[in-house]
Design goal:
Elements (H helix, E strand, L loop, with lengths): L2 H8 L2 E5 H13 L9 H14 L4 E5 L3 H29 L5
Antiparallel strand pairs: 1-2
Helix pairs in contact: 2-3, 2-4, 3-4
This protein binds zinc ion.
Zinc ion binds next to helix 3.
Length: 99
C-alpha cells in the first residue's frame, strides 16, 4: 500500500465518481420499466455503456456524506444520466451479452 493510499484510508476518504453512483442507481430504478432481463450481467453492461457516454465527475469525500453529496450533485446530471441510461438499457435489451 503506498503512502497516498494509506493516508486516504486513515482519513476514511474515498474517491468516488458520482456519475457512476447516479448511473447505478438509475439503472436499478429503470430496468423494471423495460421488458428485459434484469440479471447482474445486464445491469452491469447497461452501467458500462451509459458511463462511457458520460463525463466522469470525481469527488473525494468521506463515506458518511456520500449519499447526501450524490443527491445534491445529482440534480445537474440527472437528465443526462437518465437519457444515457435509457439508451444503454435499450442496447442491452436488444443485445444481451449472454444467452
Ligand atoms: Zn441478463
Amino acid at each position: 500500500m503506498d503512502i497516498e493510499r494509506q493516508r486516504a484510508v486513515c482519513e476514511e476518504l474515498v474517491l468516488v465518481n458520482i456519475v457512476e453512483e447516479l448511473v447505478k442507481d438509475r439503472v436499478n430504478a429503470l430496468i423494471g420499466d423495460f421488458d428485459m432481463c434484469s440479471c447482474r450481467i445486464c445491469r452491469m453492461n447497461a452501467c458500462a455503456l451509459a458511463l462511457n457516454e458520460l463525463p466522469p465527475k470525481y469527488v473525494t469525500t468521506t463515506r458518511g456524506v456520500l449519499f447526501a453529496l450524490v443527491s445534491v450533485k445529482g440534480d445537474a446530471y440527472q437528465t443526462a444520466v437518465d437519457v444515457e441510461v435509457a439508451k444503454a438499457l435499450e442496447k442491452v435489451k436488444d443485445h444481451p451479452l449472454h444467452d
